[in-house]
Amino acid sequence: MDKQKIDVKNIPVEVQVHRPDGSTTAKYASRDRIYVRAVKGLHQSLRRNMGFVFMALFFVLPWIQYNGHQAILLDIFEQKFNIFGLTLWPQDFTLLAWIFMIAAYALFFVTTFYGRVWCGYLCPQSVWTFIFMWFEEKIQGTRNQRMKLDQEPMSVKKFWKKALTHFCWLAFALFTSLIFVGYFTPIAPLFMDFFTLQAGFWAVLSVLFFTVCTYGNAGWMREIMCTHICPYARFQSAMFDKDTYTVTYDEKRGENRGPRSKKDVQYKEKGLGDCIDCNLCVHVCPTGIDIRNGLQYECINCGACIDACDDTMEKMGYPKGLISYTTEHTLQGRPAKVFRPKLVGYFLVLVIVCVAFVVNLSIRKPLELDIIRDRGALYRETPEGLIENTYTLSIINKSQQEKTFALAVTGVDNINWIGPEQVTLAGGESRNVVISLSLDPYYASKPVLDLTFSISDTAAPEISVSQGNKFFAGR
């Protein structure tokens, strides 16, 4: 068989490496500090009021007493969460999972409809950052005064203002941390022991850790948390569509931008739009972006640029709304669709998980039973010739009131109960009760018998739980 030779041609490949020139070999530019200008308006009033209400709830809730104990106490060491009249145990982890799912789908639903309003109005990072900026403004002055102060050489005046600012930041961060840790340990003793230097190691470590985190996040990192660390800023675009209400600049109306006199009513004949290029929308933005460049992932939908622009439009005598909460379809002259598949889908899933949470909460029993057999022997014979099995009943009173429970066993006739038939537990108490069951071998129809242990509330017999187990008869 003839072999055909295949000619191989070498094709020279030249790889060109484009090296940066000298002008672009500089190191990464350091982060420019953002000097946020204070602004007043409808959206900022709404944001401040909402932040004040929820921040007040955060500070007040752990101090509320309910039935003689702290209303909200998430005791990790004791492995029980007290939420007013409800006590959750590790066995109730599914309820916590439902709560997380409700929060997630509520966030997805709101984001799909109104963008990142959670970030701009209620996110703790944003709320505490605005509080820290408020301290900065009250001590160091307005935006221009702060910029001028930073450019000045160090002096007694500058040192005093800077030191007072950081002292207020640290004091507020410490107070915040004490309140936060107070959700996980009794708050009144925590405050007293911390300031008298009698607090435990873990309490002190937790308070100092969260103090440093709050001081660093709200005082120094600020927008870096929103733009580089928080994952929500990255995957939010998957929930946006052309009918999502976001902070948007009306380019058709605003361009071409340029300064002009307030008395200039012929500006449109000069090819100018309504934007006077005052840059106030940039100065008031907490993340330092220019909303006129279009939708950007750094935007937290706080509405500060809307209030600044509306104030400028009012002074110029132009209609408000050059920057507003609107949709892409609206800017294109098309009606926005509220009821769309994605939004309806998120809403339906949110309703389903809410119903599932309510159902799980309603069928939850305020007591728990776990049975552990004697590991030393399956059974033993008594001097009377009876077969005896030993069990440990682990009982938890998951309510917050003292309860008396009746213990019983069913499933095997003529069986003898050896041990307490009632047990009284304080609210949140757990106890191991050791009992034995004995049976005459004559009544054992087979080597292994099925039986059921049950416990019930003596004051409310309908509240009961049961669990099956085995009785080993030996033969």
Automatic annotation (TrEMBL):
- Could you list this entry's UniProt keywords, alphabetically sorted: 4Fe-4S, Electron transport, Iron, Iron-sulfur, Membrane, Metal-binding, Transmembrane, Transmembrane helix, Transport
The transmembrane residues are 50-66, 95-115, 167-188, 194-215, 343-363
Can the keyword Repressor be found in this entry's annotation?
no
- In this protein, which residues make up the domain named 4Fe-4S ferredoxin-type? 266-294
InterPro entries attached here? 4Fe4S_Fe-S-bd, 4Fe4S_Fe_S_CS, Cyt_c_oxidase_cbb3_FixG, Electron_Trans/Redox, FixG_C, Helical_ferredxn, Ig-like_fold
The record's listing under Pfam families reads:
Fer4_18 (PF13746), Fer4_5 (PF12801), FixG_C (PF11614)
Give the signal peptide, or none.
none
The answer to whether the entry has keyword Metal-binding is yes
Coiled-coil stretches noted in the UniProt entry, renumbered to this chain: none
Q: What is this protein called?
A: Cytochrome c oxidase accessory protein CcoG
Originating species: Alishewanella longhuensis
Q: What is the lineage of its organism?
A: Bacteria, Pseudomonadati, Pseudomonadota, Gammaproteobacteria, Alteromonadales
